[in-house]
Specification:
The complex is a heterodimer. Chain A is an alpha+beta fold. Chain A has 12 helices and 23 strands. Chain A has helices at 13-24, 48-54, 93-103, 110-124, 135-147, 176-182, 227-237, 290-298, 305-308, 346-365, 384-388, 450-467, and strands at 2-9, 29-32, 61-63, 69-71, 126-127, 151-153, 156-159, 168-169, 186-188, 191-199, 202-210, 213-224, 246-250, 253-259, 272-274, 281-285, 314-321, 327-330, 339-342, 370-373, 401-403, 406-407, 433-435. In chain A, a hairpin with an 8-residue loop joins strand 18 and strand 19. The longest helix of chain A has 20 residues, at 346-365. Chain A is globular. Chain A starts with a strand and ends with a helix. Chain B contains 5 helices and no strands. In chain B, helix 1 (3-12) packs across helix 5 (74-94) and helix 2 (18-34) packs across helix 5 (74-94). The longest helix of chain B is centred in the middle third of the chain and has 21 residues, at 37-57. Helices cover 72% and strands 0% of the residues of chain B. Chain B is an all-alpha fold. The A-B interface holds A 44, 47-48, 52, 57-62, 68, 131-138, 165-166, 262-268, 289-295, 298-299, 301, 304-305, 308, 311-312, 332, 335-339, 376, 397 and B 14, 27, 30-31, 34-39, 69, 74, 77-78, 81-82, 84-86, 88-95, 98-99, 101-109.
Chain lengths: 469, 109
């Protein structure tokens, strides 16, 4: 039995931020993390070994729908910040304002959010690459410039203090979790929370399992921070259902494996993004290790053997959209993993086709000579005319989609008919149960969500401190 | 993995070195075991059904996989796509030298 004042479930961007802020304010904090504590540099980024030790399900899971959308989640101390690309983008002002009005969110003006974002950025060494970008990234800028499109080199949560060109990603396990621990928080890895215990509208703790052994935790306050899939699943299996798990949002992403007449780097993710069509359509680059390149080529239904003979010349790029569609996270009794669904609209498919065509145009302008779209049987393109044929090929039967950004499954806001938690993350109808992670973000932000998650988590944690003794 | 899954994975694996083939099969086995249960149950059901169908049909593995890929049934196409994706990813990531990252190529500006 463990007794604590504040129990934080999950140690990703939301959980780590919550734990650090509360522990530094003198609160007694215990963090439970289902995954292991893995040293950030112990495995190569995006490698098979990283998938084995840091990803839930070894990597692949899928939101069911037509077409399904493959997704990945981190499961280790630091959560998905340990496996993402570290790109940093504050929540766009117009979206924050739109959400504030639509979902009736108190104290959610752009000015307020920027104040919190600045403080989070100071924790984490948010900066651009100090030197020239790698070629895989510069090609995005080059193609955009030729087409007259706007592109941006995004800052990332990277430190270059070690003198290396690649730098060191400032993950939660490297930055915010140590802050929490230094302030007295206890982090318990390999501990799965089976369900929260409750008495009426109060939560009293959690029933857990650690290394196969039962563990009971008693707590005065509970923050659920397991991400947009695991948080609603835990709440549902603990009996909280109203506004929980509905409204899941993600960024459906379609890819191209692009072959160039010269070698390209493969050890990092491009930091440029083409923002000409943002926030509804964003173009960028993906992890492109050998396995990713082979998989991306195979996604077009093509035998990758020939193209892989020159795999050093191939890199993977993507177009991601903000979709009209919504999804659902549903806990099914007897199953450990929740059912995740996502229903793309016809308009979403049109946006994906547009994104694929724009991405193809951009890569040809950047000098690519061969493009493999992630559409089974899709035309392997060598010209703009080939790219134009993709308009009719992106359909529900043949298109392969993925995402790494999932949000909005426990929306924040004052109207309980539109949200699962109030303006500061307290679950509607409860006294002491909070959500503080990607689940709260009211809609897909169109950009990498880590900055928005940490900004909102800091804001909510400080509100908690101000309103509880 | 079920016997039929092992057979399909072996047929999809293109590398010839026995140890590497075993590691690829091991990776696919681990990944299937760690999938969300509802997805794994779906794959198991398909493996049983397709395995029965294959035993009745009595065709060679390559033709079998071709017929799955060309099937009018979306779940059958997805079945082979899933296993193929896992095999391709593992083959290229487990191959010698895959973990040696290519030296960065900088933009010349």
């Amino acid at each position: 039995m463990i007794e604590t004042e504040v129990l934080v479930v999950g140690s990703g961007a939301g959980g780590a931020t919550t734990a650090a802020v509360l522990a530094e304010a003198g609160r007694d904090v215990t963090v439970l993390e289902e995954g292991a504590w893995v040293e950030p540099d112990s495995v190569e980024p995006f490698s098979l070994e990283e998938m084995r030790v840091k990803y839930r399900h070894h990597g692949p899971a899928a939101a069911l729908g037509s077409p399904p959308v493959a997704y990945a989640e981190g499961r280790c101390v630091g959560g998905s910040t340990e496996i993402n690309s570290g790109l940093w983008h504050r929540l766009p002002d117009d979206l924050a304002e739109e959400w504030r009005q639509r979902y009736q969110i108190d104290e959610f003006t752009p000015d307020v959010l920027h104040g919190y974002a600045e403080r989070v950025e100071a924790w984490q060494s948010v900066q651009q690459l100090p030197g020239a970008p790698p070629l895989s990234s510069a090609l995005l800028e080059r193609g955009a410039t030729k087409l007259g499109w706007h592109s941006v080199e995004f800052p990332r949560v990277f430190s270059f203090a070690d003198g290396s060109a690649r730098g060191q990603k400032q993950t939660m396990a490297r930055t915010v979790i140590p802050r929490a621990v230094d302030a007295g928080a206890v982090v318990i890895p390999r501990c799965r929370v089976l369900r929260l215990t409750r008495e009426g509208d109060r939560v009293t703790g959690a029933t857990c399992e650690r290394d196969g052994e039962p563990l009971e935790v008693r707590a005065e306050h509970v923050f659920v921070c397991g991400g947009a899939v695991q948080s609603p699943a835990l709440l549902q299996r603990s009996g909280f259902r109203r506004g929980i798990g509905n409204g899941l949002k993600l960024h459906p992403t379609i890819k191209i494996a692009a072959r160039f007449p010269h070698p390209i780097d493969h050890d990092d993710v491009p930091m440029h993004r083409v923002t000409e069509f943002a926030p509804n359509l964003t173009i960028g680059g993906s992890a492109s290790r050998k396995g990713h390149v082979a998989l991306a080529i195979a996604d077009a239904g093509v035998d990758p053997t020939e193209a892989m003979a020159e795999w050093e010349h191939v890199s993977v790029y993507y177009a991601a959209i903000r979709s009209d569609a919504g999804g659902r996270v549903l806990w099914v009794p007897g199953l450990k993993s929740p059912l995740v669904t996502y229903k793309l609209t016809d308009a979403d498919l049109s946006r994906l086709a547009r994104g694929l065509v724009h991405l193809g145009e951009l890569l040809l302008a950047a000098g690519a000579t061969e493009l493999h779209p992630s559409v089974i049987g899709g035309t392997v393109a060598h010209s703009l005319a080939d790219v134009g044929s993709w308009w009719s090929q992106v359909d529900r039967r043949r298109t392969n989609l993925m995402t790494v950004h999932l949000t909005s499954s426990v929306r924040m806001g004052e109207d309980p008919t539109l949200s699962g938690a109030d303006s500061f993350g307290r679950v509607h109808g409860t006294q002491n149960l909070y959500v503080n992670d990607a689940s709260l973000v009211p809609d897909a932000p169109g950009v990498n969500p880590q900055a928005a998650i940490m900004t909102i988590a800091l804001r909510n944690a400080e509100h908690f401190l101000a309103t509880t003794a | 993995m079920l016997g039929f899954e092992r057979r399909i994975v072996a047929a999809l694996t293109t590398v010839t070195e026995p140890d590497l083939r075993a590691r690829v099969a091991g990776w696919v086995d681990d990944t299937l075991r760690d999938m969300p249960e509802h997805l794994r149950l779906g794959v198991l059901a398909e493996s049983i059904g397709l395995g029965l169908w294959a035993s009745v049909r009595g065709t060679d593995d390559a033709s079998l996989i071709d017929s799955f890929e060309a099937s009018p049934l979306w779940p059958v196409r997805q079945y082979v796509r899933l296993l193929k994706g896992l095999v391709i990813f593992a083959e290229h990531e487990l191959a010698e030298g895959a973990s040696t990252l290519v030296a960065p190529v900088q933009d010349e500006r």
